[in-house]
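Hey, I was hoping to borrow your eyes for a little while. I'm sending you its amino acid sequence along with the C-alpha cells. Take your time with it, there's no hurry, and the full record follows here.
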Amino acid sequence: MRSLPLPLALTARLTPVAVLACAGWMLSSGPAAPSSAAGHPPGSSTPARPDSAPSSPAAEPKTYTTAPAPCASVPAAAVKSLVPGARTAGKEIPSTDTELRRTCSWNALKGYDYRWLDVSFEVTASDRQAAKEYEQTVTGKSGGGTVPGLGDSAYSVVNLTTEDGQQTREGTVVARVSNALVVVTYNGSDFETKRAPGTDEVNKGAIRAARAAVAALRDGRSG
C-alpha cells in the first residue's frame, strides 16, 4: 500500500496594484503614451483573432474519480478467515482527503495468534501518474514478484522481522487499476511460540484481500 501558503498582508496585496494602476494611467493619458495602432483610432483596440488564443491541452480521462469505501471492500467471510476474531466492519483510518485516499484496518488477537490487515485506495489524476507511483512503490520493495491477473499490474512481497525475539511476517500487495492504486498489508505473529506464520500463508492472504479490493474498486462499491 501526502501545506498552504500563509496569506499576505492586505497592504502588501493592494500597494502593487495601486502603483501599477497609476503607471498605467500615466502611460495611457500622458504625453509619453504610445501611438495607436495603424488603421485604428486612439482608444480602440485591435480585435483578437479567434484562432490566436492559446489552446490548453485536454485533461486525460479518468476511470476513477473517488475512492470506494475500504471497509466494504473485503467480504465478511474473507475477513473472518484472514483475521480471526476481528470485527468484520473494520475501522476506517482518518484521511485528509476521503475522495482520493481511504484506508480500512482489521486486527485481532485470538488466543496467542495475532493478525492485522490494511486495505488502502488512492485515486490519482491519470493512468500515467498511477503507473509512475506504482513503479516507485515497487522499486522500494525488492525481493517480491508480479501477481498475474490482478489489475493492470500487481506486485507482492513478503518480509520477516524479529524484535525482542518475536517474529512478525508481513505481506504487501500493490496493484494498479487504471488511475487508481490498491495497497494491501497483511501480517501476523504467534505470541506463544514467538514465531510468525509461513510465507505462503501470508502471501496468499494478502493476495486474496487484494483481489477482493480490486473487484470492489471496479464495481464502484461504496458501502
